Every structure is written in structure tokens, then in C-alpha cells.
Amino acid sequence: MSLFSRQFANVVEWQEFRDDMIFYKWHNSEIKKGSRLIIRPGQDAIFLYNGKIEGIFKDEGDYDIASEIVPFLSTLKGFKFGFNSGMRAEVLFVNTKEFLAKWGTKNAINIPTPQLPGGMPIRANGTFNFRVNDYVKLIDKIAGVRDSYTVEDVRLRITAILDQLLMKWITKEGKDMFNLQANSFDIGNGIKTDLDMQLFDTGLTITGFNIISFTYPQEIQDMINKNASHSMVGDLGRYQQISMTEGISSGKVAGGSTASDMAGMMMGMQMAGQMMQNINNTMQGASPNTSPNTSPNNNINNQNANTVKPNFCPNCGQKAAEANFCPNCGHKLV
């Protein structure tokens, strides 16, 4: 009886599979005769020998390593299970799905803007998607020195450079600092391209980058909200009236009820003046067709009406007599 008949067969599989794990490296002292390889859905199995790829197996199933795997390996295809020890190799299991991760700025980013000398402090959050697309680069840069790699590892790597990328793409082409959400799609696409270049050598690729929201300091957000509501008025006078009304209703107008009454009276006078001005403008702009009847008879009557002497002198106020001139100051009455 041979030595291998007394050996237990190994099962080469992804032990304790985690959905957030990008790859897992199975390694043992040897792969014995009779060992089996189990590949589950969404996994690829890569045989490594001395750090080099021997074969990549992508079809799910349960395989006998000696008869179904070894013949397809590069340098180990001639290996025969007849030695005193088994085959020394490693198997790297790679999760082939597209991963989704959340991101958020740890601290506020001061975006340069002329309106604020110290910059506009903003925060942002969103999601990004990525997957493995190059096994050779993945092994050379990461899997060659690590037994596993998770989504959290990638998230930490990305957030370390995300602040600089946000600043770059927000300030690019003069984005409106007070309405960044309207430009979030363009900003996200620019960051996605840069992140993909950053991860190019690791064998990972960014398949999506989304910005869910930008967050301003509370005082800046209040100013934005108030400006948006007042912009709907569109008139400076109305803006002042609304501001005064808000102050009275909220109790922010100091001085008690007297100050409130005076403010209300001033508002009423301003509104009355505005109404009179509107009426005068309307009358001055009236059409000739809407003027009083201008027939010849009416013109004569109007001339006669105009020649009526006043009861009092318009110059000195003395009661007028029957004469055509004021007896007190001599002002012409007709």
C-alpha cells in the first residue's frame, strides 16, 4: 500500500466566505493526492506556484485536482502524485462580483471661493462601485503579500485621496459654490476617471462614482435657503417688506409694541405711496380713446368754466369782488 493511501484528502475551497471580501488565499503545506477543488458561484480559482499564475479556473463545480486540474497547469501539468509529499501550491479565490461601498468626507473641505476668504467649508458623501479586472496586477501589487483583501481596505485607500479630487473637480471650470448639487454628475464623473487611474496598477477598476449630497455649514445653508425664497419675490421693495414682516412676526424687531406699530405704519405708508404711484402711472398711460368727450360744444363749455372768477384771490387769499383784479394785491382773477 502506497504512502498516499494513508493520507487524508484535502478540500481546497474558500473557507468562511464573506460577501465583502475581494479575495482569499488558500495555502497549506501541500495539496495531497485525492484532494478536491470547490469553486462556488461568483468565484474564480487561481493556482499559484512560486508566486506565479499556473492556471485560472472560472467554472463553478467540484473538481478532482489530480485528474481535472493538474493537467491544465502551466509548469505543474507533468506533476505526478507519487512522491512522498503532495504538491506544494497556493490557490487564490477571487470574488468576481461588482462591489458597492459608501464614502464620506471625514472633515470639512475648504474650497477656495472669492466670496469667503477662508474658503467654503463643505462635506460630501456618496457611493462608489468597483471590481477586479486584472489578476496579474492584483497578485503583483496586493495578493502577493496579503492573504485576504476587503471592501474596507479599498474604501480606506480611496478616501485617503478623495479630498484632493473633490477640490480639483469642484473648482474646475468655476462651479457655483452655492449650488454644487446641480453639478454633482459632472464632478462625480471626473472623480471616477481619476480614481480609476489611481487603482489601475492594483488590478481594480472603478465602475461607478456617485455623489449623494453636499453639506454646507448651517449658517451658509440658512443663507442659501433664504436667498432662494426671496429670489421668488424678485422685487427689492417686496424683499424689504417681507423681511420686516418676518422680523415683526418672529419678535426680532426690538422696542416692544410701539416699535412694531411704527414699523407697521411705515410699511402701510410705503404701500399706500406705491399704490398711488401705480394709479398715476395708469392714468398717464391711458389711451386717448378713453378720455372725456372732446366735442366742440364741450370745448366751449370747458372754456366758459375756465373763465369763472374764483371766490378768493389765489395770490393773497382776499375775498374776491366783481372786479377782474384783486382789490388787495392786484392779482388778475380772470
Report the sheet-strand fraction: 15-25%
At the first level of CATH, the class of the largest domain is Alpha Beta
Main β-sheet description = 5 strands, antiparallel
Rg: 44 Å
CATH H level, superfamily name of the largest domain: Band 7 domain
What is the tally of beta strands?
A: 12
Overall number of domains: 3
CATH fold label of the largest domain: Tetrahydropterin Synthase, Chain A
Q: Helical proportion?
A: 25-40%
- The number of helical runs is 8
* CATH A-level architecture of the largest domain: 2-Layer Sandwich
Content-based structural category: alpha+beta
Order of SSEs, N→C?
EEEEEEHEEEEHEHHEHHHH
Unreliable spans are 1-7
Mean pLDDT: 78
Task: Sum this structure up briefly.
This protein is α+β, with helices and mostly antiparallel strands.
Describe this structure in words.
A hairpin with a 2-residue loop joins β9 and β10 (116-132). The longest helix has 29 residues, at 256-284. It is rod-shaped and about 145 Å long. The N and C termini lie far apart (149 Å). Residues 1-7 have low confidence and may be disordered. The protein has 3 domains: 8-95; 99-219, Band 7 domain (Tetrahydropterin Synthase, Chain A); 300-334, no CATH class. It has 334 residues and is an alpha+beta fold. The protein has 8 helices and 12 strands. The strands form 3 sheets. It has a 5-stranded antiparallel beta sheet with strand order 5-4-7-2-11. Strands 8, 9, 10 and 12 form a 4-stranded antiparallel beta sheet that branches. It has a 3-stranded mixed beta sheet with strand order 1-3-6. The protein has helices at residues 65-69, 135-143, 151-171, 184-198, 218-231, 236-250, 256-284, 296-306; strands spanning 11-12, 21-27, 36-39, 43-49, 52-57, 61-64, 90-95, 99-104, 109-113, 116-132, 148-150, 204-215.
